[in-house]
Predict the 3D structure of the following.
Amino acid sequence: MSIIMKGSEVAAIIQQELLKQIERLNQYGITPTLAIVRVGARPDDLVYELGVKKKMRTLGIKCPVFAFPETIDQADFEKNFSSLNLDSEIHGILLFRPLPKHLNEKTIIDTINPLKDIDCMSPVNIAKVFAGEETGFAPCTAEAVMKVLNHFGIGLEGKRVTVVGRSMVVGRPLSMLLLKKNATVTICHTKTKDIENTCRNAEILIAAVGKANMITDHFVAPDAVVIDVGINVDSNNKLCGDVDYDDVAPKAGFITPVPGGVGTVTSSVLAVHVVRAAKYLNKIEER
Ligand code: NAP
């Protein structure tokens, strides 16, 4: 039976350290602040927003929401976005995407201050992740996976790691973070041939696909480490990952559950990024 990699264990340690850093910022008269920017009111966004607000508030991070009507035009939105960019009381900006089709998302993303870009939307931070530079912000989910692996003592150097999924929010940047740690990374996607064999060759298998229970035990080598990034709803309306947990857990060495795995760590990483942004912007040295 595998070891269950619970996200709550990782999040608790991150939060302990964060609280000390937030206290230090408070001593300088700074309250770290994350602005959520939402256009319209998609149900998924509202659920995510609630979760983020709750997490930030428990840590003492301010989290105002700037909600705009779905009909807002480009000029108006850019003006509002730019004022958040310039506001010295705001340290991080979390823009919910995709934006409505009539808005040019790229123009907005290109204008975000990279120092406030706590979820790696801007080309500057993306380039840093791909160049292996650690001075920017990686996407929170990708970094959350790295924190889980590190917490459970999973070494990466020289390991065969397969990532299923190549999106710009998870699969690709995560592959770069793994490469930076000297893993030998294989990336799978919809055009990958013989995906089962490719996955079965991995010592560490990471699923970031968005397909409920796609990864069954045929994809997994005995005792492999299996990380499930997926957040899906199954045919019974139950939250589940990309990994068929009941099928895979008896074969894997380590496995993350869904819910309670990577997702639990992601919001803590978001908080870490806001605090780091508050330090950068106020020129307070890391300790
Ligand atoms: P996405 O943008 O839809 O990308 C999915 C990727 O999976 C694509 O690269 C796609 O390949 C690949 N893929 C889809 N079906 C496949 C198949 N049958 N075989 C092989 N590859 C396949 O999704 P995402 O934004 O990366 O999110 C992935 C999952 O992670 C979702 O369930 C999402 O809800 C979850 N997520 C979780 C967190 C968290 O905090 N835990 C955060 C963000 C996302 P192509 O490129 O060829 O189309």
Notes: DSSP finds ten helices and eleven strands in the chain. The mean pLDDT is 97. Residues 140-260 form a domain with the Rossmann fold fold (CATH 3.40.50.720). Residues 52 and 277 are 17 Å apart (CA to CA).
